[in-house]
Design a protein that fits this description.
The chain is mainly α and 93 residues long. The chain is 76% helix and 0% strand.
């Protein structure tokens, strides 16, 4: 009698487990069991591209700052009359 009850219990649990696994609660539990490390490949690729773009923007900002400094230096040279020096006359030989 116990054997028949055990078989009946297993037979009834199979569809119940299938229903629970296919439900939103079962999917939420599965996502939680997978853990936070399960990131889709597309998202990882996008993250790498964003990181590369950020590095490029930083490089461009440094280049722009360098160009600003060079421009300011040249502007000071052009505006300062004492900075303009003439070449000495050539020696008479």
């Amino acid at each position: 009698m116990v054997f028949i009850g055990l078989i009946l219990l297993v037979a009834l649990l199979i569809p119940i487990i299938g229903i629970v696994i296919d439900s939103p609660i079962g999917r939420a539990i599965a996502r939680r069991v997978e853990g936070p490390d399960a990131v889709p490949q597309d998202v990882q690729d996008l993250g790498k591209k964003v990181e590369l773009l950020e590095l490029e923007v930083d490089d461009l900002n440094r280049s722009v700052d360098q160009l600003k400094e060079e421009n300011a230096f040249i502007q000071r040279l052009l505006e300062d009359p004492s900075a303009r020096r003439t070449l000495p006359p050539p020696p008479n030989t």
